[in-house]
Every structure is written in C-alpha cells, then in structure tokens.
Design a protein that fits this description.
The complex is a heterodimer of chains A (115) and B (111).
Chain A (H helix, E strand, L loop, with lengths): L3 E4 L2 E4 L4 E8 L5 E7 L6 E7 L2 E5 L6 E7 L2 E7 L7 E8 L10 E2 L3 E5 L1
Parallel strand pairs in A: 2-11
Antiparallel strand pairs in A: 1-3, 3-8, 4-5, 4-9, 5-6, 7-8, 9-10, 9-11
Chain B lengths: L2 E4 L4 E4 L4 E3 L1 E4 L5 E7 L5 E7 L5 E4 L2 E4 L9 E3 L8 E8 L5 E3 L3 E6 L1
Parallel strand pairs in B: 2-12
Antiparallel strand pairs in B: 1-4, 3-9, 5-6, 5-10, 7-8, 8-9, 10-11, 10-12
Classes of the chains: A mainly beta (115), B mainly beta (111).
C-alpha cells in the first residue's frame, strides 16, 4: 500500500479563520512533508518532519504551523492566511535511512481558497 | 545548486503517437531521478524512477533511462492514450530530504 490520504479535499476560509489540514499514511514511513503548489508550477517544499521532529522549515510564515502528533499523522494548522496562500497543499511521506529514502509518495492534496 | 530542466509545454499529440519529454539535470554527486505525473485536480503520482547510471525505470508503458554522460532522464512512451493527458514532472534527489523538481510539462492527447 503506497497511499497517503489528505482531508479535506477542498477548503474555503476567510482571512480571520483558523483551520487545519490533515495527512495520514500507513506505510511505516518516518519522514513526512508539506508542499505548496500554485497553479502551473511545481510543488514547493514547506516543512519536513523526520521521526516526528521538525527537521526542515523552508522559511514559511508563522501563519502556517505544522504538527506531527505521531508517526502516521501530519497536520498543518492555518491562521490569518492571505489570499495569496490559496493553493494546492500536498502531503508526502518517505522512508528514512534506508535504500528507498529518496522516494516520496504524495497524497491527493487539499485545494485551499482564502477569501 | 541542483536543478532540473524540462522541455516547455504543452506537448500536443494524437492518440497512439510516440512521446518524448526531455529532462536534463545539474547536480553534485549521483542523484536519484524520478518522473511524477499529475492528472487534473489530483496530487502527484510516482511514475518511475532510476537510482544509478544506465538504470531504466519503467511503468505503464513509460520508460526513462538514467544517462550520466548527458545528464539526462528523458521520458518516452511508444503509443500515448487520451488518458495520459496530464502534467509530467522530472525530479532529482541528492540528499537532505529534498526533491528538486523541473517546471513540469503538460501533455495533451487528442483522440
């Protein structure tokens, strides 16, 4: 099973709202990732968690707050977003420290619209 | 730093035509190379990969060979279908949990 699931599929929020995106994988992967993808662009890395600890933060604004409650779950908490934050948010996972650590498996994404 | 260059799209083909999407890379060391596909409204799916020089990745009729001498990883398919219409991303991994993506190439296949 190489499935990463994400909820919700679509989200519309106002600039004063607080919402969360959720990601789950059951492949036993110990690295999980958040990406942001704007239309007609490649994904841009936001955060990396390795063994439930934040290992990479690509200078993402503090209105995005990641959380990794356990090895299967990854959340992205959203607060006071701007319209330019509207995008497809992708979660991915991979192994750590093994022969296949370079292969990332992506979820279907959450399409976010900020009004 | 690492970089991936893909041919600009869209690539427009008729069904059953031969497909080539060019991808070249710049990287230190010996990266692993990937092709991901993104169908409309969906996330990225791993299409194929190669981890060392001269490896050939293949899946669903698509193939790509890791050519170290030309730093290339071109995607090919002998006979495309309408259902292959999507955006194709070439990517490399050279460490530090980071994938470097090309800009993506849109493929449009007409009946």
């Amino acid at each position: 099973d190489t499935e990463v699931t994400q909820t919700p599929k679509h989200l519309v929020m106002g600039m004063t709202n607080k919402k969360s995106l959720k990601c789950e994988q059951h492949m036993g992967h110990r690295a999980m990732y958040w990406y942001k993808q704007k239309a007609k662009k490649p994904p841009e890395l936001m955060f990396v968690y390795s063994y439930e600890k934040l290992s990479i933060n690509e200078s993402v604004p503090s209105r995005f707050s990641p959380e990794c409650p356990n090895s299967s779950l990854l959340n992205l908490h959203l607060h006071a977003l701007q319209p330019e934050d509207s995008a497809l948010y992708l979660c991915a996972s991979s192994q750590v420290g093994s022969g296949d650590q370079e292969t990332q498996y992506f979820g279907p994404g959450t399409r976010l619209l900020v009004l | 730093g690492d970089s991936v260059t893909q041919m600009e799209g869209p690539v427009t083909l008729s069904e059953e035509a031969f497909l080539t999407i060019n991808c070249t890379y710049t990287a230190t060391g010996y990266p692993s190379l990937f092709w991901y596909v993104q169908y409309p409204g969906e996330g990225l799916q791993l299409l194929l990969k190669a981890t060392k020089a001269d490896d050939k990745g293949s899946n669903k009729g698509f193939e790509a060979t890791y050519r170290k001498e030309t730093t290339s990883f071109h995607l090919e398919k002998g006979s495309v279908q309408v259902s292959d219409s999507a955006v194709y991303f070439c990517a490399l991994y050279s460490g530090y949990s980071t994938l470097t993506f090309g800009k993506g190439t849109m493929l449009l296949v007409s009946p």
